[in-house]
Amino acid sequence: MDTIYDIIKIATNNHKISKQNIINMLSFPIPTDPLTFPLFVTADKTREKHVGNKVHLRALIEFTNHCKQNCLYCGLRRDNKNIIRYRMTPEEIIDHALNTFKGGFETIVLQGGEDPFYNTETLCKIIQSIRTIFPSEINHAITLSIGELSTVAYKKLREAGVNRFLLRIETTNRLLYEKLSPCMDFDNRIRCLKDLKTYKYEVGTGNLIGLPEQTIESIAEDILFFNEINSDMVGIGPFITNPDTPLKDHPSGDFWLVMKVLAITRLLLPNANIPATTSMETKHKNGRMIALQCGANVAMPNVTNPIYKENYKLYPKEHEANSFECIKTMLEKMGRVGM
Ligand code: SAH
Ligand code: SF4
After folding, report:
1. Is the terminal CB of the chain with fewer CB neighbours within 10 Å at N or C?
2. Any idea which fold 4-334 has?
């Protein structure tokens, strides 16, 4: 078997790793001082070499917690009666988006459940209104994260001025995907990602680590999938147990396994944007800071109005230190600059 150093050397030079070697890397034990783990050290260097020391800030606006889907892991699932549902009006969304750009953020992420209240026409009007004030896609990127839409909807939204879209594949194991997301179809998820590529969105995908029945082999296949579709952004996060869901008895994903997936993804996709996510912080008190030392280069301050934010419960929010101020303080401590 190749040593970790052999695998890392090949990966660093060619940005290629075989499935077996990904499995081997995911299985190597982490040392007591985890940040000395060669995979993490190399991923950090690769990040610095290819995307630099700046941390891209993406302001997250959670505009609706209604969802017609029923994913077994998620607190926004339609059958969860234990959350107070809200949706922001189109005017509120426009105002909030404009104020966020005026406040200096260059990217906003509008995220929500799959909520039919916002049909394509309504969404296009929201985007067009924002674009009349902030037309530049380079200085003012608009990202959507609202799940599966029709081909026509993706086309129209792109034309209206959306330039990025986040849609995690969650798991590339078709059977597991369809079991965890009843009513959703794996082929349709792939169709969505292909449409997004066709219409020249910057596409973000990603996965959840620690799902029931998920194997190391299946996680290795997820990583190869990110590479295969040449994802511009990759959001990797631990599954976090939500007591209001059918997976309430399944333990959350392992933090260091998430870090390994992140680091390997950085070696394979050296130029990708990889966020340090809030869910990582839920699993480790310095989760995001560690992620930024294992290959991540993006942070997502949550700028949602607090009256809504507390009800956007994909999973229980215990250590919510994702305000802009918290993130700024963290980056200053690390000597990294947010932009
Ligand atoms: N409805 C959209 C966007 C909102 S959900 C969509 O599904 O794409 C955004 C992400 O939250 C999902 O991609 C999923 O990976 C993550 N998520 C949901 N429930 C979670 C949980 N219990 N633990 C960790 N992440 C979760
Ligand atoms: Fe809805 Fe997204 Fe949650 Fe699935 S993961 S229930 S699509 S909000």
Report:
1. N
2. TIM Barrel (3.20.20)
